[in-house]
Every structure is written in C-alpha cells, then in structure tokens.
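Dear Dr. V.,

Thank you for agreeing to look over these. As mentioned in my earlier message, I'm a first-year student in the group and I'm still getting used to reading structure tokens, so any feedback on how I've presented them would be very welcome. I ran two proteins. I've put each sequence directly above its structure. The first is here:
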Amino acid sequence: MVTLCFACFSFVGVYAQTAAPADTMAEHAHATAPPSNSLTVTMDGKSTKFSVADIQALPQTTVNVHNEHTKVDESYTGVLLGDLLAKCGLPVDKTTHRKMLRSYLIAEGTDKYWVLYSVTEIEFSEHTDNVIVATSMSGKPLGDDGQLKLIDSGDKKPQRWVRNLTAITVKSAE
C-alpha cells in the first residue's frame, strides 16, 4: 500500500514538472481573435454599447508604459476607464466609495481572455495609476490588438492588459 501511494505521488510530481513549462509558454501566446470594434459595458443588469468613435469622442488621456513582454516603452491614448463607467451610471469618485469597495469588474477580449480588477483600482483617491481603454498607440491604430485595448499604467507586466477589448462587466460582491 505504501509503495502504491509513493508511486501516485511520484506520478503527480512528474506531471506537475512536465505541465509547468507549457503553461508558462502559453501565458505569453496570443490566440488569433477577431478585432474588437465596439465595447459593451454591463452594470446593474443594464448594458451600454460604445463604438470606437464614441470612445474617441470622450476626453482622452495618454499613458506611457514599459511593456515587459516586448521590452519596449509604449505610449497609449484612450479614455480613462473611470470616465467610461461614469457614462454608464457609476461615477468613480468618493460619492460611490462604499459601492466601489464591494465591486469588481471583468474585462474580456474577443479571444475570451479576461482579467479582473477591483473597481477601487481605477479611482484616483485610491489608486495613483491610470487604467484606460486605448484606441491608439503612439498616435497610430492598435493593429493586431484590435481597435480597443485595456491598459493599466501601474502594472509591471501587461498581464492584465486586454487586447481586442469587447466587454466590461461590473459586479457587486454583496
């Protein structure tokens, strides 16, 4: 019985060792995905759809970031995510602080890659960096990243950046 259990643990150890490198390589791989051409923001059961032109018509912010994956400094321009949420009925400021502390958002690309943010991460009194929905990089269209891309200027690695951004869903943890 002891030998059998030892064999089971040995098998699990070997599997974990062989599975890890594939997962690490997949972390940076990008699935082929249709380009994003609009963004749907859903909050409290209500969805608002924004075209790229709608997003470009809002006040724009430029962030300068270092992309650790490509080892290149990049400059993105787009709307602050907080401003976009305010257009959908959630002003991201001290008046909604309690709600933000108990809320999170899921941002998803057309390739089904998604990331999670606490809503307080996009509020200036709580977070010093900018999270934007970018429409351009260095004054040019985003190219393979679609027409919309979520960028967080405070992340050391672009793990929570979302290429081909197509949906943002705000949820309450209550």
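The second protein is here, in the same arrangement:
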Amino acid sequence: MRNFEYENYAHYVSCQIDGFNRKKDNVWVRPSELNKIIKDIRENLENVEFGICHGVRTGFEVDYLRRKLKGTNIIGTEIGPTDHSCIIQMDFHDIKDEWVSNVDFIYSNSFDHSNRPAHCLKQWRICLKENGILYLTWVRSISQKLDSVDCLSAELNEYEKGLRKAGFRIVRWLRPEKRRVVLVAKKEIK
C-alpha cells in the first residue's frame, strides 16, 4: 500500500473537501454492486438493524440500501458538507461511541481516500457486532492512481493483507464487474 504524503491532518481534510466539491455529483457505486451486497446481507445476516456506508458523497448508496432493506437504519458518513438527512459530516476514520459493537454491516467503496488505512479498518472493526460484516470495494484503478484525493494506492492482495492485520477474515468475494471486487470480511473473534 502506498499513501499520499500530506503536510498534516488539516492538509488531508482540505484536499478531501476540495475533491468532494469537484466530484460531489459523481456516483461511482452501481446498483449491480449494491444488489449483490443486499443479497449477501439477506443470506448471511439475521435481524439487520443498523448499517453504515462510509464516504458516500451524494448518498446514493444510503438511499438505495434504505429502499431495499426496509426497516433498517442506514446512515452515511462524508467528510464534505451535506444537507442529506441520513449523512453525517465527519472523517470516516472516526467513530461515535454509540456505534461500538452495534453495527450489523459497514460498506465502503471509498477506502482509497484513507490516509490511515490500518487505523481506519481497526475503527470499523470496533463498530461491528460479533457477526457483523464489512463490505469493502476494491477497484483496479486504485492500484494505478495516487494523488491528494485518492490518497491510497493498493493491489487487491494488499487490501486482503490489511484486512487480516486489522483483525478481519475474508469470507468471500463478490464480483459485481470485471475490474471491481467487494471483499466480504468478518471480524476474527479471539
């Protein structure tokens, strides 16, 4: 894994918000990917009550999942400003106390925006219930790009290694498209 070098945390936040403002109307997640995740949730989680989508920009994935998983409280996080009622403006490396061991699933296709990937995965792990699932999208272009917005560059095997180091076990892959893989991971119970 390679990370872009920022001057400090304020520089990271500034670059991410600038990127958000430039790309705020772009949607990178596709319904085909979300449908595979929904199917997996229905097959592998019981009594789903709470899910978080990290780095959601427009909130498309939050709205889509809320429509398809009726009765499930699903929120999103985004570092940029938002007026979406189900999105919290915050850095996805941070967590709220009420999330600890209380989240059924976490989804992100924005992990390439992480300036502290090991810390980020550990924080997300803390939030998941014992049987909770992390859905983490890797896209081929992640391994080929590195800049102040897409600040993490990694191969698929590096995502896998990072997940294992953070205390996850990969239980399967979902392949919504040729160059996209959703890693489905559960936290290791020690």
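From my reading of the second output: The chain has one domain: 2-187. Residues 2-187 form a domain with the Rossmann fold fold (CATH 3.40.50.150). Does that match how you would interpret it?

Kind regards,
E.
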